[in-house]
Amino acid sequence: MISLSVAWDDIGGLVDAHERFLAGARVEADVRGPVLESWKRCRSVGLQPHQLLLPYEAGLSLDELFLRAAEPVLAELLDSLAEMGTVLAVCDGRGRVIQRLGGAKALRERLDAVHFAPGFDASEGVAGTNGVGTALAQRGPVYVVGREHFADCLQPFACAGSPVRNPLSGRVEAVLDLTCLRDDGDPAMLRLVRAAAQDIEARLLEQATERERALLAAYHRADLATGGAPRPPDHGSQGQGGDGLGRIDLAVLREKAEELIASPNRTLDEVLLSGGRVATLLRRQIFGAAGETGAAVEARILGGPRVTGLGLPVTPPADAHTDGSSKASAAAAGAPAHPARARAAVPPASRPVETVGDILDGAGSRLLLLGEPGVGRLAVLARRRLEFLHEAGSRIGTTLDVTRTAEELAEVMVPRFADFVAVDLPDAVLRGEEPEELGGLDALRRVAIRAVRRQPHHLYDVGDTVAYVPSTPQARCLETRQSVMEPVLAEAGGWFAQDPQRLERVLAVGVHSLITVPLRARGTTLGVVSFYRSVRPAPFEDDDLSLAQELVGRAAVCIDNARRYTREHNTALALQRSLLPKGRPEQSAVEVACRYLPAQAGVGGDWFDVIPLSGARVALVVGDVVGHGLHAAATMGRLRTAVQNFCSLDLSPDDLLTHLDDLVGRLDRGEGWAVDSTQADSGIVGATCLYAVYDPVSRRCTLTCAGHPLPAVVAPDGTVEFIDLPSGQLLGLGGMPFESVEVELAEGSQLVLYTDGLVEDRHRDIDSGLDRLRTVLAAAGRAPEDTCEAVLDALLPVRPGDDVALLVARTHVLGPDRIAEWELPSDPAVVSRARSAVTAQLAAWGLDELAFTTELVASELVTNAIRHATGPVQLRLLRDRALICEVSDGSSTSPRLRRARSEDEGGRGLFLVARLTERWGTRYTPSGKVIWTEQPLP
Predict the structure, then answer these.
(1) How does strand 97-101 pair with strand 172-181?
(2) 582: CB partners within 8 A, 6+ apart
């Protein structure tokens, strides 16, 4: 081993990193990740670097089988360390030092001074960061040198530790540790201790194999002693055909045999096979020459054809079969009368024990499986864990809802794994936001609970805010981002410190064991899951911890997917709502009620609008952009803006949809810019629109449709009629004109516009939806708001697959007492008569304040019509929310506002009109045009 010229822990910023860490500073750039995680665990349990209290227990020892496997490996390792001045420590699975071997006297004395000696506890929770405790905590090899130790007294040393696992159960049986002075340390120590641990694990596996071979030999000797003779296996019929057992039957028999070996209190079992055959399994206990204890399972098949093959090594099927334990006697089942009458399948050395099998000929029983009960139990548990993982994968993450996914995780784990499960998430995750880095002090919200008992569990309930104190397993789990297991809660002082009075009651109801696992996905901690046991007396084990980590890891990905979807959904919904009308515009032509409801699967492109027009008219619009998500919402916003702009031009409904169709086509083609065809949402898939204009003066409503569902009209007496409109093509296709239909509506009629999500879904066709809508609308005297509520209550599904827009408008009429109109000849002399008529009408309406301005506006407009237009001239005043003055003529030429030069004799009249009124414009009619102005009422 070569000493380094610069100590390992003097490189970089580790010199004062420990002090800065204790002061609360961030030291991620200066400390190795595993060491920093260990420091966080030590801090969370309240360790003080300058003061350690190490428990001592005399008379500790390791299992005899482990020592037998470890002795040759440890001896070889000590020989290689003879010249290196390194101490080898062997600790048990709880981190307590059992043996300390090798090393110079001076080194041993220094280790005695810090209580790193047999009988003392070196686990991380009491000794801080070190080779033994940190290897146990991380379940893997670790190297710690100098200032990387959490405790000040251990900083003069360097150590490398590695856990030794039982290869069959996966349980940590011991920990090997190499310790030397800091200046003698070398990272190569990690490789040495890891190799030694692997060698011991291999020898443990060899021991298990030797024990099983000894059991098979004992079974074989007993068979020969009773007069039997082994027969060579016949594998000619082990396939699916012929009279041999099929693969499924073999797998079922093997599963039942494993369960029978693992069940010391059961002797018989019956298994139903294909072809009406029944297999009777008999469990017999076997004792080896050296004291080995095991069990053999013999099988006999009754009924059906002769079976010519058994014992093929197969993989158990994914689906478990129900145990059919039989209470029939061995004699009734056809089992041999003598306990060793069954014949061995093959000589012990010819094939592995776990594939032992032989020919069943229907006349006697044969050996099916042989092994140790503990190994059989592990095989059964391993298969059940695989089945559990498969089931959980199909039950967790069925929706894209964060809370529901957390509830599914709790439902899956209770009662098969735990007796009580709680899922805690930060509020940011519930809102779909990117969570900040969680620490042990962050407050969480309990979003899911599942328990086997209905009586109070005395823990926090759903909706409660939970702030864990730093010493709790949950806080340590969040701080270190690693799972924490407390097999005996009564001894977990850190957990008890959360709320002593409450947790006293928790222990009183039988809760005794805990596992906490962080919900981590894509490098982000999303929360923590706590598993408790109360009804089951067995505490959690290492295998349970591995299973919990696997299941929570899968659930974390599902929760993160749901969180990301929630974020996208909320973003699209916010965009959608920002693009929809914020309130109701000021107009008196109709009384309006409207609703927009997004789909469960995502925000769509449904929209509506109510747009006041000139002449006291109003435009009602409902549209639908195909698809969901941000693209559909953004496209909807563009179309709504376009419709508002086209409305400002006072276009007729068919002309407006023609312009909108052209716009959609240009948007779909990229408006002259290069379009990336690889983008799935680069174009507009399709859009529908229904546009209606209602005139309260004439009670006429003009409607035009572009592929949209037909509107409904509810007469004042409750009669419902769907207006038969030419359906028209979807927007963006181009090439076909749109047709308008004009209907007359009685005062108080309700015009109902909606999108297809209201009347059509996967479980209902549009015809039945329209029939249902007609039935709901058939009511007289209902307000628009009540109509909206009734329609949604009757037609909206529980989980709508498409968004819904609904617009209900009840028509009003502008009465004759609020309208004044005059037919004027094309004679300049009539202008003075028009001024007088306007003044008199305003006086009758009590609007004398507007008389001068309106007289001037009417005079200018009538003069321009007589001078520049043709045909009859009509002057009309409307008293609505504003005073409207209109002059119509037979010309289609629109006047243009311009600024007159100082030497011009004319051109100032329209400029005066624009300055004296609030709004003005031109509206074209089939017979000419209308020049209109609006003035606010006083």
Answers:
(1) unpaired
(2) none
Structure tokens at 757: 């999500």
> Is 0.90 surpassed by the pTM of this model?
no
Which amino acid belongs to residue 390? Answer: H
Residue 858: C-alpha distances to residues 706, 837, 852 (Å): 39, 10, 10
Name the E strands within 315-459.
366-371, 420-425, 444-451
Tell me phi and psi for residue 855, to 5 degrees.
-60, -40
CA 485 to CA 721: how far, in whole Å?
69
Compute φ and ψ for 159, nearest 5 degrees: -145, 155
| Token couple for 112 | 């005695």
Residue ranges with strand state E in 613-739: 618-628, 687-695, 700-706, 712-714, 720-722
| CA-closest candidate to residue 263, choices 371, 138, 361, 353 | 371
DSSP class of 354:
G
Residue 675 CB neighbours (<10 A): 13
Torsion on CA atoms 696, 702, 704, 705, rounded to nearest 10: 60
> Model confidence over 335-377: pLDDT tens digits?
333 333 333 333 333 333 333 333 333 345 667 777 777 666 6
The answer to whether residues 572 and 432 touch, using CB atoms and an 8 Å cutoff, is: no
Torsion 492-494-495-500 (CA) sign: positive
Distance (Å, whole) CA 625 – CA 868: 45
Give the residue from 431, 429, 420 showing the smallest Cα distance to 525.
429
Report the distance separating Cα 729 and Cα 738, nearest Å: 8
> 774-805 burial, b for 16+ CB within 10 Å, e for fewer?
eebbeeeebebeebbeebeeebbbeebbbbbb
Strands of the sheet containing 513-521, edge to edge, are 465-466, 444-451, 420-425, 524-533, 513-521, 484-486
Instruction: Write out the two tokens for 74.
Output: 């440890």
**Beta strand pairing status for 873-879 and 804-811?**
unpaired
Angle value at C-alpha 95, between 90 and 96, nearest 5 degrees: 70
Mean pLDDT by 10 residues, the chain (938 residues): 43 71 86 90 86 91 90 92 88 94 92 94 94 92 93 94 87 93 91 94 85 71 53 38 64 80 79 82 77 79 50 36 33 33 35 34 58 68 78 88 94 91 93 79 88 74 89 88 89 83 86 93 92 90 88 94 87 79 86 87 82 95 84 85 92 92 80 48 71 96 94 95 90 87 95 92 84 93 94 85 90 94 89 92 93 92 86 91 93 75 64 88 89 93
